[in-house]
Amino acid sequence: MVQLLLIDGAWQQSATLGTYETHNPFTGEVASQAAAATPGDVLRAVGAAERAFPAWAALPPNERRRILWAAAERIEARADEIFQAITAEMGGPAAWGHYNTSGLAEKFRYAAGAVHEVLTGEVLPSEKPNRTSMAIRKPVGVVACMIPWNAPALLVGTSVPNALAAGNTVVMKASEQTPRTHGLIAECLTETGLPDGTVNLITNAPEDGPDVVDALIAHPAVRLVHFTGSTRVGRIIAQKAAAALKRTILELGGKAPILVLADADLDRAVEAAAFGSFANSGQGCVITERIIVDRTIADEFIQRLVARATAFSCGDPRDQKTVLGPVVGQDSIKKLSGLVADAVAAGATLVTGGTADGPCFAPTVLADVTSDMRAWREESFGPLVTVVAVDGPEQTLRMANDTDYGLAASIFTSNVPLALDLAKRLDVGMCHINGTTLDDEPQAPFGGVKDSGYGRSGGRTGLLEFTETQWITIEGP
C-alpha cells in the first residue's frame, strides 16, 4: 500500500501522483511506499490547518482533553502495527518499538491533562486606578512539526500533543525514512473525532525535502516551527525561520557525557553507560557518547563496560532476542569506521568493536581518547563510546564541558551535594544524577543549549512554547 498524504481530513495522493520507496536497513527490501508531496501539497495542508484553527482553538478544553486521551488509547490499540513499521523502516528491535509507542501514548495523556493549565493567565497590578490588567495565553496558530526517524513514534510526542493541547493546528512533516510509522500515528489521530484539518500529514521523497521545507516555513500561516534532527539541518531551519520572523523550537544533536567519580557505584554506572551508549544502536540525541571516569577506577570500569558491550546480541531486529539492530544507511557505517580509524591512528585504544557486519556495527569502546580526536568532537550517531581517564571532579567537569554540544549528561557519585554542584556547572539542558543520559518523561522540560538547540519540549515549559502571551487592560467605567 502507498502511504497517502492527510490534508483536511482526506487521505490523498500528491498533486503529481508521485511516490517514493523506503528500504529496510537490515534486509535492503522495500519497507514502505509513500506519496511524494510537492510544495503545492504543502500549501494545501497549511491552508487546511489555517481554516481549522479558529474552531479548534475555540473548542472547550474538556473536548480537546477527550480527543487527546482517545489518541493515547488508539496508539496503544494499534501498537503492534506501529512496532512492525518501526522495525521495517528504521530497524528498531521490539524493545525500541515498545519504548516508542508507550512513550508517545504517555505524552498524549500528559497533554490531555494539561489543556486547562496551558492557557492559564494572570491578573496584573496596574499603576492606573480603576483599571484591570491581565496577561492571557493564546495558541500561536499553525505549527509545523518536523519529525525524525530515529525514535519515530516517541518524537512525535515532543511537539504534536502539546501543540494540540494549547489549541494549535498542526502540519506534521514525516521523516523520509519512516513515512508509514508516521502515517499510522496520523491514522490514530483521525480515529478520535479530531476535526478535519486539525492535523495534516506530509510525506516527501528525500530529494524534494528542501523544497517542501521551504514551502512549509515560508507560508505566512505557519507561526511556529518545531524541528528535531541534526545540528547541521537545524541551523538551516533556524535561518529560514528567522528570515520570516518565525519562532523555532530546535532539538538537535548531542555528545552526552557520563561523569563517573571515584566513589561511584560501579555496577549502576556501568549499566547506565551500556544502556545509554548502545540502545537503538546509538542512534539518538541523548545517547551516551563520552565517558569521563576517575583514573583510580578507570581500568575496572572499562573492563566491566566491555563485558556488557560484548554480551549484546546484534542482528535481525525481527528476532525477539536481538538487542541491537542495524544502523540506518551505509553512510553511517562509513562514518563510524572513519571515527574509529582516525582515533586509533592518533593513539586511542580500540578496546572492543569497531567493525561492521553488514548493516550492523558492533558496540564499540575507544579508550585513551584525547579531546582533539574526531571521535571526541563529532556526534557519532552510532554504537560508539569514548572513554577518558581524569584526575578528580574538577577535571571531570572541564572535560565534560569541552564540546560544542549541550543536551544531556549524567553524574555517578555517592556524594549528592557534590553532584548537584557539578550539575549546575555543566553546560547542558538536562543532567541525571546516578541515572542514564537516555531519559525522557512527559512532564519534564526536554532540550539543550549551545549546538544542541534551544526551546523545550515537555512539562509546563514545553507547553508554554506553543502559546503567545497577550496583555489586556480594561478601564472604567
UniProtKB/TrEMBL annotation:
Family per record: Belongs to the aldehyde dehydrogenase family.
UniProt keyword Protease present: no
Domain Aldehyde dehydrogenase: 11-472
InterPro entries from the UniProt entry: Ald_DH/histidinol_DH, Ald_DH_C, Ald_DH_CS_GLU, Ald_DH_N, Aldehyde_DH_dom
UniProt keyword terms in alphabetical order: Aromatic hydrocarbons catabolism, NAD, Oxidoreductase
Pathway given in the UniProt record: Aromatic compound metabolism; naphthalene degradation
NAD as UniProt keyword: yes
Catalytic EC class: oxidoreductase
Listed EC numbers: 1.2.1.65
Reaction(s) catalysed (UniProt annotation): salicylaldehyde + NAD(+) + H2O = salicylate + NADH + 2 H(+)
PROSITE patterns listed in its UniProt record: ALDEHYDE_DEHYDR_GLU
Active site (catalytic residues): E251
Organism field: Mycobacterium montefiorense
Residues making up the signal peptide according to the UniProt record: none
PANTHER family documented for this protein: BENZALDEHYDE DEHYDROGENASE YFMT (PTHR42986:SF1)
Annotated GO MF terms: salicylaldehyde dehydrogenase (NAD+) activity
Protein name in the entry: Salicylaldehyde dehydrogenase
